[in-house]
Amino acid sequence: MNKRLKTLAWLCPLLLISPGLAATSSAQEAADLPSAEEVLSAYVKATGGVEKYKNLKNMSATGKISIPQAGIKGSLEMLQVAPNKVQVKTDLGGLGTIRQGSDGETAWELSVITGPRILKGEEAKQLMQEANLKKTYEPQSYYKEMKCVGTEDVDGEACYKLELTKPNGVVQTDYYSIQSKLQVKSMNEVVTNMGEMKIAVKLGDYRETDGIKMPFKMEQSLPNGMSQIVQMDDIRINVEVPEGSFDLPQEIKEQIDQN
Amino acid sequence: MLGGDNNLIRVKLFLIGAVLLASLSDLSAQTSTSDPPRVADTPALDTELQLQSFDEVWQRIRDTHWDPQQVGAAWEQARQELRPKIEQTSSIKEVRLVLNDLINRLGQSHFGIIPQDTYGIMEGKGGPKDHDAGIRIRSYQDSLLVAQIRPGSPAAEAGIRPGWRIEKIGDLDSRELSKQLQKLVHGPMRYETLVGLVGERLTAGGKGDSISIDFLDQQGQSHRAELVLQRSPGKFTSFGNLPPMRVHQIARTLDGQIGYFWFNAFLDPVQVMPAYNRTVRNPEHSQGLIIDLRGNRGGIAGMTMGMASQFATESSPLGVMTMKGSQMKFALNARPKPVRVPVAILVDECSISSAEIFAGGMQDLGLARIFGNRTAGLALPSVVTKLPNGDRFQYAIADYHSASGKSLEANGVMPDEPIALTPKLLESQNDPVLERAIQWIQQQTPQTEAK
Question: What predicted TM-score, i.e. pTM, was given to this entire model?
Fold first, then answer.
């Protein structure tokens, strides 16, 4: 069964309980839907093409972060090297610096508020996955299942709605503009030490960096009613990575030694 | 990558917003109905801005309140009843009265309007309450009592002693004040807490201000003190939309081997957290630790997790907050070598918010013994946002239950060793709560040394 038929098969049980006219309409809509693979492939093409992505080894970025409801502003820097090395530093002024990172083996967090912390289990995997640059252009290598389940408007823009099942079984819902092919929204469940939380992210301000279009603005809605806005100033790819960039901080090394 | 992989940035930054919840109770937000008119009252009102502010307050509560019963039909009815009243207001004070009328219908803590001039100190406009007399006032029967005197303060220099009763502050008779405060009690706010907060405000003022206070000592002798206010200790700090306040901490060693840490707010983590960590991890404090939260007004809720984590042997949460449609644990980050000495936490009726979350969780997890008076019971995690009219709006976004499952809102933390302050007790012991905590620690055998 090809991918499009797979989608239709999944929709059949729903159609059985739908009223006649709506069923006809939904069936027609489903038949017109592209597969998730096609939507993701169109995204890669619209943002630079597979070859550009395949050459991507690392990425660095600097930007600003704000939490408008709380009147908080700060800055951030990040560096990630495929497949699993990450370093993020967020400076929130009076709150101090919050750092997160992974050297490929140990994922960690260091903040004035919560102290040094070694991330474990799903939380650690999640952080390391952020440097998995391959899953954009080879999504089937990462997601267990991918479905395009319909269309939906996001802020007045018609979008394909995709349901992507991650290796841990969590379903992430992404929205891609039918017209521009760009991703405009994602709804996901993330694992934190405070529990599993559902967050929504709106993506925008796409700009080209070395041949790849990327969203420079992300607005994350948190379950506590706050939103975090990340506005990137500068994103670079395939930068020179200084030696020791991913070394574990001393406080984390001490925690490992004491365990 | 930022675009294709839609997880990258947002996951890494996720916890920032989560730990910044303001669990701080500001008196401005609680009692603005009783405040005198301020400078900001004078300009002509822009009614449209006031209506927008009303709508924002009403909508935010409707959209974020965790209890659908509270924001159902009665909430809609409140909007229909009160919104037209905004159009009839002629001063910002009247607007605040209407907004507080709306908010007070919830009967819960951490909902309030904070006047914009509260923030003047951070904008270089000076602060009306930047100096104080150094007296900690608490309620006693139908009157007021001096519970503590700050060393080196104007009150200390004047020879005022803990245990003295307060007869008058300026022209204000303390019994009359007490009656007035009884009338202001609403929602979970207790009279005892209100006395402490208002007492703090009445003995504070601006540079060059002085106050006259009449006292009655334990022997029945009257004293009058004219106190020139002194700049309050600590560093003025502001974080986001939280109201600015002086953050002050004291770290010292008591009786040779007991560490002591007092701080007045869970704010300014860059200064407070390292000082706290040094105190609790100091090898000299091998006999025990005293964490004094009396008068602590709360602040950044995330700091409670970092502070409690120093003692955690496992990753149990301090408590759980329940929001609209989801829950968050106040997770502890168990350390490989947790501090394992007896821990006493001192609380009183003015230990509020994050102070209660910390004390209640430590008690529930068996990590500390609590001494003093029942805490305020004003313990809902909240957010402070700016309204179109410039005032700030504090609103709770979650219910909170401590590790054992008990609700702290309206209940507070019950001390393991309640100690009621009386003139007689304060005469015999300068600080009976602290002294009892020291005595308890000295009776304990420290567990494994883990510094």
Answer: 0.86
